[in-house]
Amino acid sequence: MLTFEWIIGLLVGAVALSALARRFGIPYPTFLALGGSVLVLVPGAPDWTLEPELALALFVAPVLLDAAFDTSLRELRDNWLPVAALVFFAVAVTTAVVAVTTRLLVPDMPWAAAVALGAIVAPPDAAAAVTVLRQVRLPHRLLKILEGESLLNDASALLIYRVAVMIAVTRHASVETLAPAITLTMLGSLIAGYVFARLFMQLSEHIRDVPSAIIMQFATTFIVWMVADRLGLSGILTIVVYAITVARTAPARIPARLRVPSYAVWETVVFLLNVLAFVMIGMQLRPVWEHLEDGIRNRYLLVAVAVLGAVIFARILWVMSYNTVMRLLLRRANHRREQPLRVPTVKGGLVISWCGMRGIVTLAAAFALPEPFPYRDLILLIAFAVVLGTLVVQGLTLKPLILALRLKDDNPVDGEVAQARVAAYRAALDAISKEPSEEAEVLRLEYSALLLRADGENGADIGPELPADPMRRRAIAAARHALIELRASGVIGDDAFHRLEQEFDWAELSAQGAGIQATKN
After folding, report:
1. pLDDT tens readout for residues 251-278
2. Is 227 exposed, middle or buried (0-12, 13-18, 19+ CB in 10 A)?
3. C-alpha of 6 from chain center
4. What are phi and psi of 433, to 5 degrees?
5. Is 0.85 surpassed by the pTM of this model?
6. At the N or C end, where does the chain have fewer CB atoms within 10 A?
7. Percent of the chain beyond pLDDT 70?
């Protein structure tokens, strides 16, 4: 019973912290990190444990799939160079700087363990940054670069992590002997992700009830990760390819009545996993913290602060160096081009440099280290300190920095929305143009009015609702009030009430397109 009480208390506390974060426009992982650090100091807190092998599958697989599902392949192609520079070189530079810094402060730590630590703290979590960026209307290209980095840098960082852990644990392997296996792993993961996605889409076509469909989405995600792991493949790369492939084919096959509730469930689960990750790491650190002597504790804290500084410095160093070099090269190249290429700006470089908040992947990777791993306790402490430090230092100052730089959003999405809305509603009108019924005539009037507004100069600003939606919402509200009175007076029972309530709910949702879109974004 005590465990259940703690679970309820932690969930309520997490919801309160999330609401507080929204109130102040701060990424909610910042407050979750602060809450996890409080658990380290709370006497009598439960001592829950989780198998290290389960950490990456439980925390990373669904979070990564959720991010990959919304990834635009077009945006990745358009921004492949800056994304690749962050995914490969920024991760490599951060890993190297952290490894050298740690070795200078802890000379007894093996190089493989130091590199593993560098890989653990190397990948930023763009979810925290995007929470802030969407509040201040950052230029669209910068937002997409950060989202692309967040999706793919986990794969590059955890590949380094995996090799370093193997070398540290076995002490016989080397990068040279593992290189062919790594290449095969990468290719196999790409193929496996695509095959799994095709199999899932074939299976999902036969599942039409909402609970079963959502359960299968989560079960398949974990199955894909576990099978990839058993085959020696990269779970992260397999999940990324799997999710992107499903995202490109699912909209034409999955009906709205399955898609809408699944979005809400996935958003809830991702939030819950973030809560669980910070709670579990806090509980793992409490016995470590209590058993350290004062002298060693102070030394570990010094190392953690130094690594935090190295992480922030390495990202700024790489991003601004890349930014400077590319500005010089592109300015020279643009003199010979009819259509000049986009030149990165100093302001954009500063924002990307400061979007280095770490999150759930860093916590999960640290937690997944095997028990006998060298300096595991120190690595756990450093990982949590880096996550907490970056979320507090950068998470709380990112919005003021962006506002001070006065960056403007070019906002190409609204123009594309207007263009696509016109094309979509013209197709809708064509589909019912020959229908002679009264219902078709009503729909033609609605779609024609919406198309007329969309064709105007401010087509991007009309919103996704139909012209009659405000009146429809008032009518549904009146119908719902009458239904409630009928049940209250005993004219109808609860079975009839709930059946009609569901009908009105779907009708109300269809008349609230703007609200649904805002929730999804």
Report:
1. 777 787 788 888 889 888 888 888 888 7
2. middle
3. 27
4. -65, -30
5. no
6. N
7. 89
Q: How far is it, in rounded angstroms, from Cα 19 to Cα 31?
A: 10
3-state helix, strand, coil in the chain (%, to 5): 80, 0, 20
CA distance 171 to 355: 36
User: In sequence order, what are the residues at sequence separation of 6 or more whose Cβ sits closer than 8 angstroms to the Cβ of residue 511?
Assistant: 465, 466, 469, 472, 473, 476
How far are the Cα atoms of 268, 488, 493, 495 from residue 498, in angstroms, in the given order?
25, 13, 9, 5
* Tokens encoding 257: 């009545």
Whole-number Cα distances in Å, 61 to 54, 121, 237, 360, 388: 11, 18, 10, 11, 22
* DSSP tag of 460: G
The chain-wide mean pLDDT, for the chain, equals 83
Burial class (CB in 10 A: 0-12, 13-18, 19+), 67: buried
User: Backbone phi, then psi, for 423, in 5-degree steps?
Assistant: -65, -40
**Contact residues for 243 (Cβ-Cβ < 8 A; gap 6+):** 64, 65, 68, 69, 71, 197
What span, in angstroms and rounded, lies between the C-alpha atoms of 71 and 301?
38
The owner of tokens 């992107």 is: 244
- Report the C-alpha gap between 111 and 116 in whole angstroms: 8
Tens digits of per-residue pLDDT, 457-479?
555 555 556 666 777 788 888 98
Tokens coding 85: 């520079």
Judge whether residue 391 has pLDDT over 60: yes
Higher per-residue pLDDT: 333 or 495: 495
- Tell me how far apart the alpha carbons of residues 187 and 165 are, in angstroms, rounded to a whole number: 21
- Tokens 């950052």 belong to 138
